[in-house]
User: Fold Large ribosomal subunit protein bL28 from Saccharopolyspora mangrovi.
Amino acid sequence: MSVRCQVTGKKPGYGNQVSHSHHKTRRRWLPNVQNKRYWLPAENRWIRLRVSTKGMKTIEKRGIDAVVADMRARGERI
Assistant:
């Protein structure tokens, strides 16, 4: 399963790990993605989302109904 936030679309970042001697090796930075359940009052059911912590803050600010509507407009399956 990919490490991707369903709300914000955050994915792993890629780059180099640079040692003290400047030896460079490839690495990736994973987003802080959590499995979380949200109550959807409009549909009277629970939904389970893989969201980053920034996605959780977005849901707190805008509300779960508005976020789910945007996700469905993008074609995301819920």
Remarks:
- Residues 64-74 form the longest helix (11 residues).
- The helical segments are 53-62, 64-74.
- The first strand starts at residue 13 and ends at 18.
